[in-house]
# Entry
Amino acid sequence: MEMEYSLALALEDYLPVIFSIIGVSLIARTIWQLDRPLGMMAFVGVGLMAVGGVLKATWKLLMAINGTDVPLFSQALFPMIAPGFTLIAMAVYSYTRQLRGKAGVRWPWLAPLIVISLFVGGSALIAANGGPWRVPLIMLATIANVALLLMLAVGAWRRNMRPLAVVFVVVLLVVIGMSQMASNVPQTIAVQWFEQIAQTLAQLAFCLGVWQLTRRMAQEAPVRQLAAGVA
# Structure
């Protein structure tokens, strides 16, 4: 039996998606300014995340309006955000290396595509045997999201932006906590409200934190480019 979602609950579900996409878009734009091929990889990741998040929120909205269940919309989240987070995390890793004066990853697409292929293959294998096919994709999305937030926290810490580093760690804890709640707590309307509001606040903090951090990173990029040119 499907849960009956209220219109307010369904509309609120768009907020964490919007804040998250704004945050990762700021990251991709900052990377683009230093390394356009790497920035393109980050923007592909942003696009995948946007599609997955919007489709899932739209599924909930349709359910709230007239009970229309579009399985493709509800099941698109992790197949989209798992590779999306992976590409963005890899782009941030290579970008960070360049800001620190090290060589970027030579073939930045190679490692994430191999990882994505392995997890997608595992998901397909499980699906073929009638098992929970989303589990490998959930694992990949979680690992890549954790890696991204940890890199942002470390980046803020190294720039003496200590409160900002704490913010990213708190966001990480909220993401993990909400994931555990979704798996282990009965999904009543009250629980869904709590999870969505917590996620909304976490993604708003992520968005504002990324905005501050990327402003500092963008200021550093021209200095690194000038130093590389002189060298």
